């Protein structure tokens, strides 16, 4: 029997985790997480309209949970949604019409499906793609120069570049860029009013999903008829035990690639640039020593932690840090908190472009470890390697604004003033 509100003490600091607006307020979110790590690192959160869950805020506990992927599974509640969203997802999946991506799946099916696209994310594929990524990085830094001396770095630069990279990897035509941009933002910015479709109701979100379906079903048909050398063809023609993937798994694969690699990287790039602006000593250090780019990119990813959480469900009664967890309970993995854990990071609230080691959990851990981690790192590396030597000055030209979402989030706007060669 799962845990109920009657069974447990409830620390109200933890309510922020189930409050999208808290994610738009760094100071508020981190104050609560620091308090929880110190006082109640495994805490019950009961804040409607979300169903209750355990939040785990310590780095070591999150790793242990992700490592044990038989005891803690992704289905049926892979991420935090209002109860109504959970219900709709379940109804759709029961009816066989729900999106079922890698993040929703468990082994052995997860392993089989992941294998189909995995080669396209390995180092060899990354090396092949690097020329194209460097070219795109240059295109966007040139654009930044041309529209200067001021721009909104998020909407003018950071949002477009990662999507172009993914469309290139998938092998889709550039003409489809505006449509994909809109769809991925409508899907991932779900809690935030600025990117919502219509009223942001469950029906509106469903309409977004249906648009994805229509687009990618047509893509599958064309790649099956005429395979090309790209990720889209690998997905369209992928087989499991000799059988083609189901239509749902195929479409879901495109959706996860198009969406997971987009806003996440945008958030890391724009939040990374902001961290450099806020820490001019670190910017100067990196400009003077480009060999720090690898550690700098890693620190930007830790610092921004674009994916705020994923969830797992306990398949049997167990304990985390001595706290009893009942079978069927949901567990929220607080990546944002893990990446400021005092037990793992020296001076965790200091942005340090030379930080090494940097064992952050921004890409998760274990069998679901981010498939696109090498791609995200390469994209960021290319962009900052192009940008920093050409940048003579940079400052904020207005207030940066964070998105209000419990899932994938970061800066919505980053107004900057700069001089760029
Ligand atoms: C800085 C950018 C990124 C961050 C912070 C990020 C973060 C994450 C996280 C936290 C997970 C879940 C890991 C877990 O459950 O343990 C994940 C999974 C995933 N990511 Fe990323 N990601 C980023 C970029 C990308 C890119 C560029 C792609 C490529 C298209 C991508 C594709 C995926 C896929 C397909 C999964 C599902 C893997 C699975 O469930 O097996 N991500 N990512």
Properties at a glance:
iron; Cytochrome p450; alpha+beta; steroid hydroxylase activity; lipid degradation; binds protoporphyrin IX containing FE; Cyt_P450_CS; globular; 421 residues; three-stranded antiparallel β-sheet
Q: H/E series, N to C?
A: HEEHEHHHEHHHHHEEHHHHEEEEHHEEEE
Give the strand order of the largest sheet, numbering strands 1, 2, ... along the chain.
1-2-10-7-3
Q: How helix-rich are the residues, as a percent range?
A: 40-55%
CATH topology: Cytochrome p450
Cofactor: heme
Organism: Mycolicibacterium vanbaalenii
Pathway: Steroid metabolism; cholesterol degradation
Pfam families: p450
3D structure, described in words:
With 421 residues, the protein is an alpha+beta fold. It has one domain: Orthogonal Bundle (Cytochrome p450), CATH 1.10.630.10. The protein is 47% helix and 12% strand. It has a 5-stranded mixed sheet with strand order 1-2-10-7-3. Helix 9 packs across helix 11. The protein is globular, with a radius of gyration of 21 Å. The site of protoporphyrin IX containing FE (HEM) has 28 residues, from helix 11, helix 12 and helix 16.
């Amino acid at each position: 029997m799962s845990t109920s509100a009657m069974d447990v003490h409830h620390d109200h600091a933890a309510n922020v985790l189930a409050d999208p607006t808290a994610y738009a307020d760094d100071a508020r979110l981190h104050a609560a997480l620091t308090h929880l790590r110190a006082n109640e690192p495994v805490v019950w959160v009961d804040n409607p309209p979300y169903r209750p869950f355990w939040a785990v805020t310590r780095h070591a506990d999150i790793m242990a949970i992700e490592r044990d992927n038989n005891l803690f599974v992704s289905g049926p509640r892979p991420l935090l949604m209002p109860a109504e969203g959970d219900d709709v997802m379940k109804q759709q999946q029961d009816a066989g019409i729900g999106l079922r991506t890698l993040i929703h799946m468990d082994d052995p099916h997860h392993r089989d499906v992941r294998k189909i696209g995995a080669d396209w994310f390995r180092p060899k594929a990354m090396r092949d793609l690097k020329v194209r990524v460097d070219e795109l990085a240059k295109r966007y830094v040139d654009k930044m120069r041309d529209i200067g001396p001021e721009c909104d770095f998020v909407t003018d630069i950071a949002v477009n570049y990662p999507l172009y990279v993914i469309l290139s990897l998938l092998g889709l035509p550039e003409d489809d860029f505006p449509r994909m941009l809109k769809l991925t933002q409508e899907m991932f910015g779900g809690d935030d009013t600025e990117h919502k479709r219509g009223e942001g109701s469950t029906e509106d979100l469903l309409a977004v999903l249906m648009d994805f379906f229509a687009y990618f079903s047509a893509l599958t048909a064309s790649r099956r008829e005429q395979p090309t050398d790209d990720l889209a063809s690998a997905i369209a023609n992928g087989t499991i035990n000799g059988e083609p993937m189901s239509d749902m798994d195929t479409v879901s694969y495109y959706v996860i690639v198009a969406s997971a690699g987009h806003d996440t990287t945008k958030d890391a790039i724009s939040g990374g640039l902001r961290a450099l602006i806020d820490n001019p000593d670190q910017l100067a250090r990196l400009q003077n020593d480009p060999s720090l780019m690898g550690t700098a990119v890693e620190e930007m990813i830790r610092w921004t932690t674009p994916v705020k959480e994923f969830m797992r469900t306990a398949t049997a009664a167990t304990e985390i840090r001595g706290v009893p967890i009942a079978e069927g309970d949901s567990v929220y993995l607080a990546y944002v908190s893990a990446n400021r854990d005092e037990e793992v990071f020296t001076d965790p609230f200091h942005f340090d472009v030379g930080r090494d080691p940097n064992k952050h959990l921004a890409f998760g851990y274990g069998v679901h470890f981010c498939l696109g981690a090498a791609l995200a790192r390469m994209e960021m590396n290319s962009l900052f390697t192009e940008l920093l030597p050409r940048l003579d000055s940079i400052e904020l030209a207005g207030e940066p604004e964070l998105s209000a979402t419990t899932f994938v989030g970061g800066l919505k706007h980053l107004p900057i003033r700069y001089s760029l060669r």
